[in-house]
Structures are given as structure tokens and as C-alpha cells.
Amino acid sequence: MSELTGANAVLEEEAQKLLSGLSARPQLNNRDRMAVPQQEMPAQPPTERIRNNCEVALGYSPTMARVEAERCIQCANTPCISGCPVAIDIPRFIRAIAEGRERDAIGIIKQSSLLPAVCGRVCPQEVQCMQHCTVGRVKKDRMQSVAIGRLERYVADLEREEFGIATPTVKPATGRKVAVVGSGPASITVAADVRREGHAVTMYEAFHKPGGVLMYGIPEFRLPKDIVEAEIEVLHNMGVQIRTDFVIGRSRQLRDLMHKDGYDAVFIGTGAGLPKFMGIPGENLVGVFSANEYLTRANLMKAYDPAHADTPIRRARKVAVLGGGNVAMDAARTAMRLGAEVVYLVYRRTEEEMPARLEEVHHAREEGIQFCLLQNAKRMLGDAEERLVALECVRYELGEPDASGRRSPVEVPGSEFQLPVDTVIVAIGNESNPLIATTTPEIKTDRYGRILVDERNETSMPGVFAGGDIVLGVATVIEAMGEGRRAAAAINELLAGA
Q1: What pLDDT digit, counting tens, does each position of 308-338 carry?
Q2: Hey, what domains does the chain have and what are their CATH numbers?
Q3: Nearest by Cα to 475 from 253, 270, 329, 208
């Protein structure tokens, strides 16, 4: 962590005072611990960060991490673990931090998760482990729960920067072969867990760089790519073979991997990479993008660095982003960093219903993103040359809750108005990649194109497993890893008995 200045230096001073006060007490009780406020994460000032693509959050200092770890009351019933899709022993790793045993802390985390530096940055802890935290429940504010993700990030960064990332032990070769299709979080987890057992693993990635959504979907300012590359290097060190620019379903049929190439099992983790559109007039105008394309150009192809990249990307002045999830926030904040003068976020519900992480919403507001709430796009307007010039929107009000529990948006008749824009980014979700399902009829899917699996994550094709977005539709990084962990256990069991 770099030297803290300005408001961040004040945070460090406050943490030092708190730690001194805590250390002066012979024994802390739960009331003492819960009286300590959650430690704020140091961050780049908004006026600076919108002019660069460096990481916004700067991470805890050792003092801040120690203070935050002391807030954990070490519940006997460990409710936070129940909210973690891979069941990390959260109280134990936090206690290790509080006692100054950071090496032990990262070891505890890695018993369950291979990607702590990633999960500590991008997972929505406030609706997973933190939602169940007793400290937050007592304070009736989940944002005052113990900052589990920030502590996870702290020890993961310490390992990478000071200790060196340890390579997991690999058992003697078994002679069995496993193919992993895709290289996102679920696939990384499967590759590592299966390789640990001594099986040969080959990972196939359609793009020119492995990492899946971690590389092409999440911006540099939220997840630096050198962190993803360091985790991929662990797979290389374990002996996992990675083939890029290789599209299963085109370069090679899935069934051929087993029947011709001799793989004993296959895992499919191809994600949900097919973007959804609104289905409204004007979506084919010049200046309309899916968030997938926009973010892939900016992240994987480094359009944010025009001095060192030849990637073409529209230099927009006025941008509208449609949606209220994390992808919408990423697209809006990326557009601002690519030089947009104004960025509107158009969302048909209120901020309270937004599925995006609270931290991302907060950062977007700080950076000047204009929230157009209870509004939605109705059509896109172009000029004589088919170039986008405006977005026609309509206003909404909230009605009764729908199946998701959120109140349904109801259109207000006659409330249409226009936003003058030259770029629209559609970020309303994705559908499952259909390539493997359409080229392998043995694999059954539901009506949304998601691959159907049993409780072991095995598909209708024996020996073929699947997990992540291709099964769940939309999953967090840690949820995808949970799917991968379950599939890997089933694959290892299958091969052990073969």
C-alpha cells in the first residue's frame, strides 16, 4: 500500500488512535468490539481517479486491518460462514489478522478459495457473508458489519506483494485427463482442485488471454489485471495447460474431447456472454453498444490507454447507460474515464432497488455519474446518416412487488422526454452462450439456454460437468467458484473410482 495523504492520512491517524485504545485494555468484551466503527477503505479522490484507470480503492493499512479484525466478536454459531458460497472459515482468518498472523490468515482462506485478491475486491459481501454478520445485525446496519471482504483483500495483497503466492501441492500423476472449457472463476477453481489430485488438466479459452470475465468484464480501476494474471500464473505453476484462441464448439466439438482426445471428464464454464438488448427502435444505430462489447474493448483490449493500444472505441461526449447492476456501473464509470463530458445512468426503479454493489453506486455518484431513476428507454433516435443523436425515455412510478420482491415499475402515460446523447450502452443483463448447447444436442438446457445439471453439477452428458453463469444465468465470482468447487469434487470422485 502506498503512502497515504490527505483524507486517507486522517483515516490512518484515526485507526492508530483506536488501536492504541484497544491495546490499552487488558481484555476486550463484545461491547468494546461493537463500539468500534467500521474502518473506511482509503481511496483515490474522485477528481483524480476519473482521469486515470488506476484502482480506486487503495486497501487497508496494517493498522486499519488490525482494528477492523478486532471488531469481530467470534460468534460461536459462525453465521457469516453460512453466507459464503465456498464456506471460508471467516472468524478464524479474522482472528489470525487480529493476532498479527497474516500468513496463517491467507492459508485459512486458501483452504476454501483460490482467488482471495479477486473476491476481496469484486464480490458483493454486503449481501453474502456481511449480511449475516452479528455485529451488523446488532447495529441494524449491514454496512456496519465486519468488513470481511476488505480484510480478505488485505491478506491476499500482502501474500502477493510480500510473501509470494504459494503454489498448491499437486499429488502424483494419475494418468487421467480433464478438459476445462472457459477460464473464468468457476473454471479456475475446477482446474486447481482437479489438478491438486494429480490429474492432467487442459484449459481452453476462446479469447487471447485467460481469465474470462475477470479480464474482459471488470474494469482495471476495480480489478487490476496484474492480479488476475498472478492467479493464472498459479495454474501454470501447478502444471495446468492453457490453450487460448480455441473455441470449443468451433475449433473442436465437445464430444470429440472425450471420444477422440481421450479426456476422462470435461467441465463447461463458458459463462453468460450473450448480451441482451431492449428490443426497441433504433438499437442498430451507430453509437449503440452492448456493455459486453464496450467493456471488452476497454479492458481486455486496453482502449483506455490509446497511447499504447490500437483498439478502436467511440470517443463519446454524452453517454447514456441503461441498467442498474454492477455491469452498468462499470460501463458508466469507464465512459467517464474515456473522456465523456456527461454520463447518464438510466434505471427504471429507484436506487434502493438497484442490484449493484452499494460501494459501486457510491463511487459512481462521487465520480459525477448522473442517476436518471424511475426512467427507461423507449426508443433511440438517429440522424440522416443513422448516427445516434438522442434517447427517448419515459418516466415510471413503482407499483406492487414482482416475483423478485422488488416493486414493479409502472409507466407514467404521456411522460416521454429526450436525452441528447451520442452513445448508448445497454447493460441490462446477459443470456447464456448458446454455442456448446447448439453443437452438442446431448446436453440439455432450459428455455433460457442455461445448461441443466444435477446436484453434483453433472450435465445430461455423462462425464461432462458445468457451472457458473452458464448454469446459474448470473452469478457472483464467489458463487461461480462455489459451483466449480462442487463440480471439481464430483470429477475427482468420478476419476477416483474409474
Answers
A1: 776 767 789 999 999 999 999 999 999 999 9
A2: 6-163 (1.10.1060.10), 177-273+432-496 (3.50.50.60), 275-429 (3.50.50.60)
A3: 270
